[in-house]
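Hi U.,

Before I forget, here's the chain from the pilot set. I'm dumping it here mostly so it's searchable later in email.
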Amino acid sequence: GLLAYCIVALTSLSEATRRCAARILGYVRADLGSCSSFAARPQLHMLLEAVRLARAEPLSRLSPLLAAFVVAALPVMRQPSSTLYPSLNRFLLSRPALPSDDVPMFYELLQGDNSTRQFLLHYIADGLRTADDLLVLQRRAVIPIIMAMVNRFPHTQQSFYIYFVLLNHSFFSFFSYHHLWLVILNHDWMLGV
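Structure:
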């Protein structure tokens, strides 16, 4: 709903969009702090506070990978009966801010059951939007690890689509970086002639 749209809006290139989303999230966070009748209030408040602290400046962009994680975590945090709830709650309680340069809960979710692996695949595929996100995945060797463990993931049509998205992004980035270097080298070589 609205929270998910606002979280995603924090990834916008437009500062005005980020300002509006941050203002709405601030109101929601304040309302959650004063509302006592909503059962999932403390967990959602904690999640929104971790998002606020994850951004270096009040209007800085949130990583799309981190936003995808938060959006995927929102329904889980409203449902204490979910199998993911205990591990997500522990993760949020263990850190005041979400890591903006990491893949949240990667190893823990990777070692879980099919539903936790599916959660992991979905938020990584949904959050892979910028070169910075791809660099985070490359630094943590996420794509090779997932591809090496493909037999441990559920074999659904949706999973195969996610594998394709991950391979496509890694393949495209590999060739685009090499193409960029070739252009630079050819340009420097041309200048020297």
